[in-house]
Specification:
By secondary structure, this protein is of the alpha/beta class. Helix content is 36%, strand content 16%. It has a single domain, classed as LmbE-like (Rossmann fold), CATH 3.40.50.10320. The protein has 7 helices and 8 strands, in the order E-E-H-E-H-E-H-E-H-E-E-H-H-H-E. It is globular and about 50 Å long. The two termini are 28 Å apart.
Length: 239
């Protein structure tokens, strides 16, 4: 079977909002692209639906939330992102519904992005493993909230002007990528940003002791479908 070449991600945008379920979601494979965008002068903000409080087995949720929020802010700073917001949905128990759509729509109206980055909401991940409910529910709510944000009569009590200016929506970690971002010169920043999640990585079973090798291998693998350049893959979602 012939593997199709990945297309270049459209560049006709200036403000991005990344909406993901957990600290570390952007960093697993996509933060190198964020580094490339901010280096090019684009503005990127993060919205985390949870604080990742259920992510470290050896830490109680309240303590874990403090640690993971700090790791996420430090990680984002490495790739040029200083605007990081956390919602209060429960890690591992994110529910699709009006509350989640409302929170995301409010963020879209505040940030007014022309590009929105999410995390794969398909049933499986790019590795073929079953995707988590948190990822699936967040991605589906995000897609719906983009439409909600543009309709002034939906969540009108937010007191925020509607925003219909989202040009592109892309999902990271998709098993069906369509586009790619050249991360030449930015892979090291992406690796460093993931390494910053030390408590989380060391708390996994088994612990992750090195992210350099898998991230480098991933960039090379995607690059094979992108002219041989190290790259990050994304799926553009038609709207």
């Amino acid at each position: 079977m012939t593997v199709e070449e990945l297309q270049t991600l459209p560049d006709d945008w200036s403000r991005a909002l990344a909406v993901v379920a957990h600290p570390d979601d952007v960093e697993f494979g996509t933060s190198s692209a964020v580094a490339a965008w901010t280096a090019a002068g684009k503005s990127v903000a993060y919205l985390l639906v949870t604080k990742g409080e259920a992510g470290i087995d050896g830490l109680a949720p309240a303590e874990s939330a403090v640690v993971r929020e700090a790791e996420q802010r430090a990680s984002a700073k490495i790739v040029g992102v200083t605007d990081v917001e956390f919602l209060d949905h429960r890690d591992g128990e994110i529910e699709y519904g009006l509350g989640l759509r409302r929170d995301i729509a409010a963020a879209i109206r505040r940030h007014r992005p022309d590009f929105v980055l999410g995390f794969n909401g398909r049933e499986t991940t790019s590795t073929g493993k079953w995707n988590t409910p948190d990822h699936r529910h967040t991605a589906h709510a995000l897609l719906d909230a983009i439409g909600d944000a543009g309709n002034r009569w939906i969540f009108e009590d937010l007191g925020l002007e509607p925003w219909s200016g989202v040009k592109h929506v892309a999902m990271a970690n998709s098993p069906q990528p369509t586009h790619a971002v050249d991360v030449t010169g930015h892979l090291e920043a992406g690796i460093a940003s993931l390494e910053t999640h030390r408590a989380y990585l060391s708390g996994l079973n088994p612990p992750v002791t090195s992210v350099r090798e898998p991230m480098t291998a991933y960039a090379r693998l995607i690059g094979e479908r992108f002219g041989g350049r190290p790259a990050v893959a994304l799926e553009i979602i038609a709207r």
